[in-house]
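Structure first, sequence second, as always.
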């Protein structure tokens, strides 16, 4: 289902933030979401310690469904809706920066860091490279904690759990990596899938049945 990258927006329920091409773009002040939001820990490239301590565990915002009454029927679970897909045009060299800006906008608009998964197709994100330097087990422990933005290469993204928002940075790599990243991202995104890259390439992959 081809997408037309005209004035792409990052939004949920037809509301949200306008995203413009990564090169030279500016983003308006995001619409605030009521209620306090825990501050995201610094990511590589931003001021902060080399490896910050994990933030305090946050309670899940989901509430458990109440059990049916003694005489009421059991209602079947609703089928999850497909995620909204947003496109941010970017070159391979600018896709990672565009993804970072998208993450910043999401966090500023009220998303918690644990809501977001970022998948790259080329060079690994600095955060992923940094955490992997401590070993594979430590890296995936960060994922399992679920309290920070998690960055994964397309080759291992299928190990990642579903999150409300998945951001894909088509920052190079072979075509197979783009197909894998978009396929995994589409299956892992609960509400919103944001893709940063060449529109023609994205549409060709999405049109192939992702």
């Amino acid at each position: 289902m081809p997408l037309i990258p005209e004035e792409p927006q990052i939004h949920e329920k037809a509301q949200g933030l306008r995203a413009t091409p990564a090169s030279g773009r500016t983003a308006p002040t995001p619409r605030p979401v009521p209620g306090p939001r825990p501050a995201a820990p610094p990511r590589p490239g931003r001021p902060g310690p080399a490896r910050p301590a994990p933030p305090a565990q946050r309670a899940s915002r989901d509430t458990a469904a109440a059990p049916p009454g003694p005489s009421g029927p059991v209602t079947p679970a609703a089928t999850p809706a497909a995620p909204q897909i947003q496109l941010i045009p970017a070159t391979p060299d600018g896709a990672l920066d565009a993804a970072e800006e998208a993450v910043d906008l999401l966090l500023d608009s009220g998303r918690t860091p644990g809501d977001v998964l970022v998948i790259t197709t080329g060079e690994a994100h600095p955060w992923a490279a940094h955490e992997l330097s401590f070993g594979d087990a430590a890296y995936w422990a960060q994922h399992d904690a679920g309290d920070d933005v998690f960055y994964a290469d397309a080759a291992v993204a299928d190990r990642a759990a579903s999150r409300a928002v998945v951001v894909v940075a088509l920052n190079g790599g072979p075509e197979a990596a783009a197909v894998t990243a978009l396929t995994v991202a589409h299956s892992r995104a609960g509400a919103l899938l944001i893709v940063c890259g060449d529109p023609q390439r994205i549409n060709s992959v999405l049109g192939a049945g992702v």
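Margin note: The CA atoms of residues 9 and 18 lie 4 Å apart.
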